[in-house]
Amino acid sequence: MTAETMEAPAVAAPTATPPHPLREFWGYFSANKGAVAGLIVIVLVVTVALLADVLAPHSPYATDTSIALKPPFWQEGGSLSYPLGTDPIGRDILSRLIYGSRLSLLIGIVIISISIVLGTVLGLVAGFTRGLTEIFIMRLMDIILTLPSLLLAIVIVAVLGPGLINSMLAVALVILPHYVRLARAAVITETSKDYVTAARVSGAGTLRLMFKEVLPNCTAPLIVQASLGISTAILDAAALGFLGLGAQPPAPEWGTMLADAREFVLRAWWVVTFPGLAILITVLAFNLLGDGLRDALDPKLKR
Amino acid sequence: MLRFILTRVSLIIPTFIGITLLAFFLIRLVPGDPIETMAGERGIDAARHEQLRKEFGFDKPVIVQYGIYISRVLQGDLGKSLITQAPVWEEFKSLFPATVELALCAILFALVIGLPAGMLAAIRRNSIFDHGVMGISLAGYSMPIFWWGLILILVFSVQLDLTPVSGRIDVLYYIEPVTGLLLIDSLLSGEEGAFASAVEHLILPTIVLGTVPLAVIARMTRSAMLEVLGEDYIRTAKAKGLSRFRVVALHALRNALIPVVTVIGLQVGVLFTGAILTETIFSWPGVGKWLIDAIFRRDYPVLQGGALLLGIVVMSVNLIVDLAYGLINPRIRHHR
To answer: What is the ipTM of this complex?
Structure first.
């Protein structure tokens, strides 16, 4: 990213020095209202997740069948001590949603970290070695891309066994090809540039070239893809939870909560509505953020 | 053209081998002894264990096993379901039309709404309509469709009592499968009310499955249209004094549709993924629900064969889209 900003003509004309890259980035980013809204929501969700112990009025696991299926406070029979009502075995829905934000963010971050690290390394290797290794890696990624993502994830989880960890691994593997492709494409464009040749001439080894020279200049597309990817990761993990293949009850994972609540859809609208709303809002926020980041970091749209 | 077709077709061979390898190893990667896992908690006696080992060919080297597997697959033998004992291929064949019907309706729904919405949004750029379409489609794109389905059931089936909650058709009707597509079969049967019942059952699943493609198509149409509207030939057409409608509908749309067609082709994978969730919610008797049920019943041959068949279907559709695209757009054909 830095290399690109250096080449770009200074946009703020009066000052002789170009603006600091971060300031310039913020200028583009903040012009996009949707992206800022997304960022605010994400900051809120992160805060809620961090302060879950303080914010949650009840334990997410405490059951009390005497208060099962209490409606939200604004409906008849609801009470303020259970603001969003209770689930079929009397757990406070709000508290479960609050703790669920922890789980969902963690799921998203872990999945993305795995696929970025693995994807970048594979992409760098493919881009640097070329030849047979490259063909092998890229064909493998093509095969993964051919299969419908959730189907592949389901198959992997079916083999490894249902559970939170296995579902995260499965989703990470399914979204891996995007990062491999990005990293490889970036490496191929970068390696033909002079600074790489210069580094190579001055005796830098392949590993140094990969990680010290080329990688920092490939980060922008990876950051954008990561932000958009977190939303896919959260969505897919929740879908697996919903199918009973992801996080297992009583974990307060949003998708799993929906699966538990499914049979009560006819009697208690709140047990179904709120967890899904939480997923939708979080995923939407990450998508908005990703769109904003892409616009701000993509040099093609800058001018 | 022939060369183009041959290259594209040859490109799918490694993919096909990859998918079969995946399906082949799937059953072997199950932690522990696959036969004991399949037997579940009931356990299995030694003689039956040995017999099954032979049946699955686990006593031979892996390469030989794979060879046997491939030759069986190529002959259309995908094994038998452990639960129903019916051949996997037969089960797939009888359930697949339900999924196809749902997927076709969903993509049609997405097109009928998405294309005009995207076009209008592009023509009235930055209007309230444009912002509305973009906002809604972003929400659609972010939608957890398994939740969306439940909410639609909540509103339309529970509150308003307009649509049925599950299944393909009312149990009152028995429709002889001719095409497998109930919309057509129910019309052919001539039974009164059967068609209406089939339509009623299709509405909610269609909306749920069509939501994500709808969002993608609307966004794609809008951006493709915006790009085309900035071209010189559009200005020329306008300068010639052609009516606004003619310019947009004839000159711009035709070119804007090229990227949109590709996107529609790419939605096939999305549709099958969505079908798994949609069918689970609405108890739709298609291959998606069949696969999920197979997981919980530990019916590995069904899972293996079903995943392989779905993979092949998606691969074939992608190939057809690719070829059709080369047919429409000569630039693609001559690229390589």
So the answer is: 0.83
